[in-house]
Fold this protein.
Amino acid sequence: MAPELSTIKTRKLLSILENLGFQRASQRGSHLKLRKIGSIQRCVIVPIHDEIPHGTLRSILRQAGIEKEEFLRMLRDEK
């Protein structure tokens, strides 16, 4: 059984997304827009809070086109 996602620090999530090629596009209030341009253009909105709840994290990963296992592997490599 694969490990489940839990809350994550916003800084760590942004670091992983930037390592995957996402770039900061704009910010409005406490929400940051990141874009990745490639064969498929992706746009994700990340709330700038201390931690990202697991449900919000799942939504961000779905929008970014990142599989949970890939994200967990990258999270382990970041440590």
Notes: The longest strand covers residues 23-28. The domain at 8-78 is CATH 3.30.920.30 (Metal Transport, Frataxin; Chain A).
